[in-house]
Amino acid sequence: MPDVRLASPQGKWILLTTVLGSSMALLDSTVVNVALPRIGHDLGASLSALQWTVNAYMLTLAGLILLGGSLGDRYGRRKIFVLGVVWFAAASLLCGVAPTAGILIAARALQGIGGALLTPGSLALIQASFHPDDRGRAVGLWSGFGGIGAAVGPFLGGWLVAGPGWRWVFLLNVPLALLCVPVALRHVPESKDDGTHARFDVLGAVLGALALALLTYALIEARSGSLVVALTAVAGLAAAVAFVQVERHRPDPMLPPDIFASRQFTAVNLVTLCVYAAFGGFFFLTALQLQVVAGYSPLQAGTALLPTTALMLLFSARSGALAERTGPRLPLTVGPLLCAAAMLLMLRVGPHADYLTDVLPAVLVMGAGMVTLVAPLTATVLASVDTARAGLASGINNAAARAAGLIAVAALPLLAGMGPEAYRSASAFDAAFDRAMPLCAGVLVLASALAFALVRRPAPGCVRPQCKRHGSVTAPPLEGERRE
């Protein structure tokens, strides 16, 4: 049984190591959007290249995050975590020196692989290292400090882009890794599940990632209307069907189909897909809208979004506690409606938009909506499965959210009629943004309707989240396996 106490020097080193590692991935998931206009201008990139700059990372992270957690269980959690940190830092260095958009996109895909190793690995280290009496508090601190990293991300990204340059958004990860790795090797105990002998579902992971990649390519390049795009879309659908068939027949699938026998689990994942699709499109386009149309600097654009994550950090724990008393149906119905209202308020953000009267009201309503829904969402996911499958359920929900954001970033510019050079013209981008926000709001209204119709109060005594505070806007908090 793990016996490291949180108050001990070793416990503090373990917590520092895991926070540093996970913060690298959390920072990159929020800072890059702010840097996109400068990246586009410096590298001569089209809008589709900017979409791929975001989506290449999301693609490999969403496709491999379930596999990444199981690798640590088999080969050693510290070993896989350190490998993920080193991999992520090396890919970040490649991003920082990339001379072309193509190399940057490839490096971002490599970053996502590192993120898929270190993100679940950091949580697994806490679960495996700390004494059971301290584990919940350690996970809560890990989640809270990670949320602070996510909140600071847009501000830090804006400062770096406006000052040293956008390349430092990526290069910043290198010194973080140089600090994290030696501490992990010196102070974090190694652990693994010696009884784990199941085969890795590599085929399932490859098919899932391939389906996402092909469908994403087809959506981003659909403006061309070429035969290649059509064939890619068909191949993506075929890969998705093959993925489902493989998961149904493998003895140890990455995504066990029987977990969806729970109607509650299926319903809350449908809500997740809708909610995080809208969030992904919103944060991608809003960072561009504030700079391209409203004329904000990168620092101003990054700072403008801080209230959303600040509200989540301050009130997510209270929201979760309230949802335990009222049940999840009400917050999961009201929360998306508040976020939809925020996106409609963003229609006020045009040329020379005033922050206090035009931007801040929408950002505050957005934060209130996310506070209302994210904690109950995670709690309902965990409550809908057996205790032994809590970590798996959380991983599936986290991957679903990232996949939804990936598809939204690919599809929304197409649906809103954005051309390849739209972000270079304030008037063209503003018009497309005004078409995109109602689409995002509509998806959120659908999420609200699904929650109202399908989500029910969980049974008493079900699994409760350990991550009470969080500030990530790209995915719900990740919960680990319950260990004794």
UniProtKB/TrEMBL annotation:
Listed transmembrane segments: 12-36, 48-68, 80-99, 105-126, 138-162, 168-188, 200-220, 226-246, 267-287, 299-317, 329-347, 359-383, 395-416, 436-455
Keywords attached to this entry: Antibiotic resistance, Cell membrane, Membrane, Transmembrane, Transmembrane helix, Transport
Annotated Gene Ontology cellular component terms: plasma membrane
Topology within the bilayer: Multi-pass membrane protein
Subcellular location: Cell membrane
One family name in Pfam for this protein: MFS_1
Single GO term (MF): transmembrane transporter activity
Main location: membrane
Residue ranges of domain Major facilitator superfamily (MFS) profile in the record: 14-459
GO BP annotations listed: response to antibiotic
CDD domains reported in the protein's UniProt record: MFS_MMR_MDR_like
Protein name: MFS transporter
Organism: Streptomyces alanosinicus
